[in-house]
Amino acid sequence: MAGYDVNQWPIAVPPYDNELPQSWLSRVGARYGVPPSTVARLAKDPSVRLTSLTAGQLAPSVALLLRVQAPPASPTYREMEVDRWAATYGRMRRSRQGASFCPLCLGDPDPFWRTEWTEPLRLVCRRHRVLLVDVCPTCGKRPFGPHSSWSQRIAPAWMCPSRRDDDVRIHRTRREWCRTDLRAGGTSVVSDAQLDAAEHLDQALEAAARDPGGPTALWQWMTTSTEYAHALLELIDEQVPANRWAHASSRELVTAIDVASQVMTAASPEAVEAIAARHGVLDPVGTHTPIAPKEHDYHPRNALLVSLRLASLAPHLSLGQQLMFRTASGCPRPPVRTERRDGPRRLTEGTWPARGWVPPALWAGELTDHVSVDDSCGRAALSLALSKVGSSVPLRAIALDLGLPSWLADRIAKTLSNRTRNELERLTADLERLFSRLEAAPPPIDYSHRVAVGRDLATVRAAAVEAASFQSIALDEAEEVAASVALWVAYTGSHPRFCPMSVSDGLQPPWPSGLDRAEFLDDGFQQLPHDQGEPMAWLPP
After folding, report:
1. Between 355 and 341, whose confidence is greater?
2. How far, CA to CA in Å, does 33 sit from each of 7, 27, 113, 156, 457?
């Protein structure tokens, strides 16, 4: 007896572009006159229950029977980028189950539900320029939520697929269907600025998902598409925490997106400062853009956002803070900090990029527009300021490392800041340029090590006596002090004023008669610790 096997269904129901799997399965069921759950049971293992979570898994089996391409079940690129941001920055985010909807879209001749309506930050219908509606106005539920009631009935796309919770019913019987016409729901028009902000966020997320390392420009800075998109999400999270996105109203989230877009598209640091003050974002002591070093950082910082905030705060920062954050550079940034793990915590420690690069008294030919060559305290203050560039180490610790008195660190602001704002800006810019030159060509001398060697005065005096003996000159007590001070100054790069050797009455003893200074310093340098090929003195290129 001949037989046959029907392995395909006769009526093809192709999905629309960007259609939600639940919407497509509902249309397939309506076309065949059976509930979506029956369609799924006939196409796949009957033990698999059709819900919003399993609709994407069951759709390919149904599409195979209908000879059509199944709608995509995976999250959109934008939604995956939001998840990547939450994992990167340690933000807790609750998934928003179900779908929002546009009543005007559901009023089309062939209505269907869009996949993008399930995204947490897709809140606007660009076609009709209205906010998406979060819940059914009658039953208060999000359509296609975690419940499976939508799969148990045949209904048009514009009808609420949920059951009501407020109906009076007989015990152990099913609740009534909602049956609300979602096309009749009210709509809320969004402004042009809010529509542009929503489009701005979507484009940023799409670019970050498709090309994470793609170049993106902000002012004169170049960053990556990922960092730019994550900066937008950080600004939104600062206003509406991500763990509230699932329950926050669309109007609240759209307002937050608008503010975030205003910050990222501001024309100048002054505009960023005005927006931050008006809306209470970019808190410098908050959890999103903290500019001060913290002992325990539980969340990474978005470097682009912190630079944006530092640029806007630059006029209000002290001289030490401007140097530490490098506000005079092309891109302000917090000081580089090393990290070590202590369980779930990241313990950070300050770093000092210029350690060993700078002598205790700045080179005589540098920054002469700001201090005179004879101003020993001014040159030492400039060395402290240059060492502070990009460093979170306290000035007192820097002064100790350079062999300078601690009071100079306490009075550096008075020594260098007694000038107009334009002069101070010019000073920080000159210090930044000098620091960049040192970064490009680091000194062949470790001044920090030399200062440490110079603290052993007995070693310096022994080297001075030995160098003088090469010229057959015996030094008395006063001449030995004078020669030792000169050798100490040449070796450490400091100034005689900061030499710890005691000088009676504060007067410099006379130079030993007949002692050639240049030859003495060369011979004395050879007696002190140094690397092979290391010069006694050096000047920045």
Report:
1. 355
2. 19, 10, 20, 12, 100
**Which amino acid type is present at position 458?**
A
Position of tokens 């000047």? Answer: 539
Three-state SS for 341? strand
Residue keyed to tokens 């006939």 = 42
The amino acid sitting at 134 is: D
CB of 372 closer than 8 Å to CB of 378: yes
359 Cβ contact partners less than 8 Å away, ≥ 6 residues apart: 383, 402, 447, 492, 493, 494
Q: Which residues contact 157 (CB under 8 A, 6 or more apart)?
A: 23, 26, 27, 106, 111, 112, 113
Residue type at position 358: V
Identify any residues that bridge with 159 across adjacent strands, giving them in sequence order: 181
Residue 477's alpha-carbon distances to 496, 502, 504, 528, in angstroms, are 18, 12, 12, 21
Give the DSSP H/E element, type plus range, for residue 342.
strand 337-342
Exposure on the CB side of residue 392, measured as CA atoms within 13 A? 15
Q: DSSP 3-state assignment of 203? A: helix
- Of 427, 486, 496, 495, nearest to 461 by C-alpha is 486
Task: Please name the residue ranges forming H helices in 283-394.
Answer: 303-313, 319-325, 376-388
pLDDT digits (tens, 9 = 90+) for 43-60: 876 777 888 888 888 898
442, 445, 446, 449 alpha-carbon torsion, rounded to 10°: 180
Query: Tokens 């970050």 — which residue?
Result: 208
Q: Identify how many contiguous H helices and E strands the chain contains and give both numbers.
A: 19, 6
| Helix, strand, coil % in the chain, rounded to nearest 5 | 45, 5, 50
CA distance 257 to 200: 9
- Write the pLDDT tens digit of every residue in 401-460: 999 998 888 877 666 666 677 888 899 999 999 999 999 999 999 999 999 999 999 999
Distances (CA, A) of 253 to 88, 182, 248, 249: 21, 22, 7, 6
Handedness of CA 80, 287, 278, 262 (dihedral sign): negative
Q: What three-state secondary structure class fits 86?
A: helix
CA geometry: angle at 54 spanning 50 and 56, to 5°?
Answer: 115
